[in-house]
Model the fold of this input.
Amino acid sequence: MVRVSRRLTYTILSMSLLTVMAGAAIAPALGAIKAHFPDAPAILIQLIVSMPALFIIITNFFFHKLSSLMKTRTIAIIGLVMYIVFGSCAFFFTSIGFLLVLRALLGISVGMIMPLSTGLLSYYYPPEAQAYLMGLSAAMNQMGGVVATLLAGLLANVQWNYGFLVYLMGIFALILVLIFLPNEQLSSKGSKLTAATLVRFHPSVIGMLLLMIIFFIYPTNFAITASQTTSLSPNAVTFIMVGLDVVAFFVGLGFGRLMKFFRVEMKYFAPVFFGIGYGFFSFGTGTAALLAGSIFIGIANGVGVPYLNTIASIKGGKESATTVMPMLSAALYLGQFASPLVVLPLGRFIFGSGDVQAPWKVGIIFCLIFLIQVFSTRHFQSLPPEKK
Done:
């Protein structure tokens, strides 16, 4: 194994900047895209955002096999080239069908990059450094989302297809990978994922699934609810939503220190803070409640993702990149994909179609389920003691 350098660390973290952009980055351009395709069914327009997630999940199931056939840098280069080409080439197409094919191919590229963006941190770094680095990875992920979302929104104001040019940001990561990433074999050809692997890591995998179902209630419902319950302008709503990502970014930067002070309690932070945030939305009124709830949800997201990645990578060791990280990636995007499909029908069924706050109340229910899952799988477990 090669000697770890800061350049290698920056190279791995550069891939974290890109992964969140697969679907969410283009969301601000959906209005302009819909206007350009006025006859396209609404479901096809929505698939422009959600299609990558489905193919990321599928690709993650085959990542272990892929890593036994190709080395690290080869996988990263292929994934990044596909990311740049299939992401940005949507700029040139005027058929909704071709756009969706390109979005599916973009999902395959992220399915190749995502496990490396976290798994390589566990491969090259000792366990005592991983909380800090997983926090940085989550912070870079959030910052990539902020930058890409703002750029896509601004570019879409020029013309509907300009928003897809944000995927050219992948060129920066590709250059770093070409220069600094070693070409190592992460998995042997004889090894394979088994049901026992999922059983071993199920607390983290199920935790990530629940966390993403809970978190994605926010971006899929906040703008609609805010417009119905306040007089905030669309720009103000966008500012609050971007502010949540900024909060999560700074929490990610400080995650390593938080783990030192709250090493035992950290497991409960995400479900508790999500519950407080959705409590403000459900029972508070006005702009102040929206701001307070968004801050707590930003903290929960900023803590939850790096915590699950950290404990899984420590448990998985150097094999994390080909075992648990693809499963966590699949769970993450499955949660994003499933959230609106699960939450909205449940809200109507339990609270009725006339309750504007129904998604937030369903969020509280899922927070309780998440809290029970954490207690039942982690209450009697602890991380290895930190090395002095």
Remarks:
- The chain has a mean pLDDT of 86.
